């Protein structure tokens, strides 16, 4: 009775209300109602009576919205059978009608679960509709949008229902994700002219697709990320979309912004694995993947790439090394053959730049302690070709308030050892790294170019008072820093850029980390460099002149920072401007004058006398600086890919100190063994004899205000605890 004689009149509302009331009153009849409507719809579809088809679907929709009883499952089966019948029809209008009904059904929260319902057909059919190639473009667009909404409905209906087949299984994701990406990609070739109709539309196909894709990714749990992302990678591979980069970057921006933030590192790991899998693909493809990784790293600004941070950099550095090898050998294979792909050098260079940029992007998101680990990790890769720029990209923009965290011993020691390598490029790079880490107030550029400064205020330096961490760092590492700076100045292959970097490093130490004691040591170091230039006749003339110039210009800077007028006067009397020209190799003749003229030499005793009047440590100032060589240096030559390289190995202690440590270790072992094996009475007797005097001294009464203890035995004072000499066994 709900069907009118003329389908144009639409559903008979009065009878529909009666039917709904009947279904609610007798829910056990729902399955028969559904079976009848399904049979009626199938008959009307076969007879092309599409008006009655629409009425049947409208009735089904209203019954679904009204009934949520436990027996609705049987009715739903009839409903899904009818929807399937419409989706299988050739008429686009029927397909769209079936999709709209399914979407309404997908938004209903059922009271009871279904153990046997399957949505495999709907995933396949809606995916097929997303790829519709119908001739009429308007109808084609409507069919595709219906397919997208249908997939969205399937996801909503199944993603939280544990009883349903897992929608995240590859068999489903391999259909859903490519269908969405196909429609997302259509925007690139479409130019729309604004019209009243399009302006009134709520969403374009691309906007709907993006919203659906974001919703899908947002529902992905930890274990589902891989299955959701893999089809994206495959789609980009199959359609050669890595080379253009634009669409690939857009896809993964959607991915990174849509998934839960704690899962971001899983996406990056998949991208890295995909990069490895394409190691022998063209440079443009690899560069596209690297570009996507770089963009993903910027989005993942939480600073957590996951538990395997070094593996991320290991993959990127491996790709950098492979690209350099490909460029050098001209082949993707270890042995060139006629079947090898042609290597395009300019494309490999672009890839290398992209990898270096990506290394920097990742490092920028890390906290200082992890960035130090990464730099140490990259240093471990040297002398592999291509590693130097990657190391520099990590230090770019490095900012750390705690120098102890930024330069731990485990990182500082190998870094300083590289300042003495034979390779001049590595030495310069390491100096730049030290400068970048120590420069916490962006002062480095104010010391370039190197020049004599008569008024320090013109530099507008940003200076803060040294923190406790700064003082601890210098107390622990200053002598090593000074020693390596001193030895680095003696490298014969150094050029002007090396000495300019050394000056910048010394200047930053003075500005960023110097207390009064450090200033004294820096003055001693500068004077020692002056003596080095005068006495080391075996060094090249330019090196000696440059060292002398470095000493002069640095003392000029220190005198400006100490603001002691007499010190400044003495420095200006020496005329450091004359010596400064020595940094330029073209002025060798003028520089030689500095080395032989006593008028341009600083006098250590005079400086000590001047600064002693201002409260500086005169005794320490008058003591010449001598590098404290605490270990042995061994140079080993070896070859890597045909290139000679010098590796410097530093031992932490000399042989004598090793023997002393062995004796101390043996003594401690014996003490521990005694306490573990000796009888208690023996230990008590041994310790009691040594502890009793200490206990007696502690038990002495404190002095009275008059100086007497008040026991009639004359004046006496107790020994302060901090002055007592405790036995070794009493001290932890």
Automatic annotation (TrEMBL):
GO terms for biological process: protein localization to plasma membrane. GO terms for cellular component: plasma membrane. InterPro entries: ARM-type_fold (IPR016024), EFR3-like_ARM (IPR049152), EFR3_Homologs (IPR051851). It comes from the Eukaryota. Belongs to the EFR3 family. This is EFR3 homolog Ba (S. cerevisiae). The lineage of its organism: Eukaryota, Metazoa, Chordata, Craniata, Vertebrata.
